[in-house]
Amino acid sequence: xxxxxxxxxxxxxxxxxxxxxxxxxxxxxxxxxxxxxxxxxxxxxxxxxxxxxxxxxxxxxxxxxxxxxxxxxxxxxxxxxxxxxxxxxxxxxxxxxxxxxxxxxxxxxxxxxxxxxxxxxxxxxxxxxxxxxxxxxxxxxxxxxxxxxxxxxxxxxxxxxxxxxxxxxxxxxxxxxxxxxxxxxxxxxxxxxxxxxxxxxxxxxxxxxxxxxxxxxxxxxxxxxxxxxxxxxxxxxxxxxxxxxxxxxxxxxxxxxxxxxxxxxxxxxxxxxxxxxxxxxxxxxxxxxxxxxxxxxxxxxxxxxxxxxxxxxxxxxxxxxxxxxxxxxxxxxxxxxxxxxxxxxxxxxxxxxxxxxxxxxxxxxxxxxxxxxxxxxxxxxxxxxxxxxxxxxxxxxxx
Length: 399
Fold this sequence. Notes:
Elements: H1 2-10, H2 14-44, H3 49-77, H4 80-99, H5 103-129, H6 133-162, H7 166-186, H8 200-208, H9 211-228, H10 233-242, H11 247-260, H12 262-271, H13 274-291, H14 298-326, H15 332-360, H16 363-387, H17 394-397
Helix pairs in contact: 2-3, 2-6, 2-7, 3-5, 3-8, 3-15, 4-5, 4-7, 5-15, 6-7, 6-11, 6-12, 6-14, 9-14, 9-15, 9-16, 11-14, 12-14, 13-14, 13-16, 14-15
């Protein structure tokens, strides 16, 4: 069975593999710096909870709300220029982070980076979804592995750069993003995935009148609340119990477990409908978050991070594949943009609540609340599955 699955993944087209490699390099550059952001602002720049959350949320809102608008344009004009421009803006914002120190200046740079993320992601995920559904589903699984590989490589690089100057990580990451932007701009084959533009108002009407998709978005908001904690509560909590030097290890565990769990993810995505994955992983998340504070030691928290990673590795490709199933052809960018709006809502709430709770609340209460959010996600996703007639690919369609 494993050989059969591997053969299926070998069938992914070369152009898709090129973009997947770009995703790996982009994620490596991203996690070279994102693993340090909250700790850098809280411990080095001495920002308070409100300032840390404001900088992080400024980036999040731009990165997750603007894809809706860029998605409308990408459905009309194509993918390649948005991908290249987004990488260039992230390069510019990281240079600003390297040399700025006030929370106002860093908020502006966070906004620039967020716009870059919005431009890039408004095109790269729809590019994958333009592939035939079986190829698209596998591309999303592989894309998640590129994320995990980046989580491994990025923190390792940041750990080396930390021995010199923490700001050096932002400079190196900026250079890498700039080079990736130039490379993507030269890949004119990306334009072949874009066939015919869809009028903006057509895509807008489709997404605003699709009740099934709206219920799906409501069901995934709790996940993005929890996902935000990987960048706020996780690193700050770990630094409190084990020091700043332990934080890169957390992201290393996150990446390594994701890579090891790749076979499990491939098997699940080939045999189960993505809509049935959502409620199951929410139950897993609720249990794991409740167990996080049982032992206030670094090794136990890293075990929790490994368990959390299994949830993350399953739910992200399931969500992305569901968007591909629900989005009408020609409006994929718009529907992925709407998903980004939902992630912005959940993530913004997660950043503010997570920052405040980690700095002001005892651990057991905080992690119990997170567990409750996972339980809420189970209820909403179970309701979505039972009440909506979503057509899932199933094993036969993914063969």
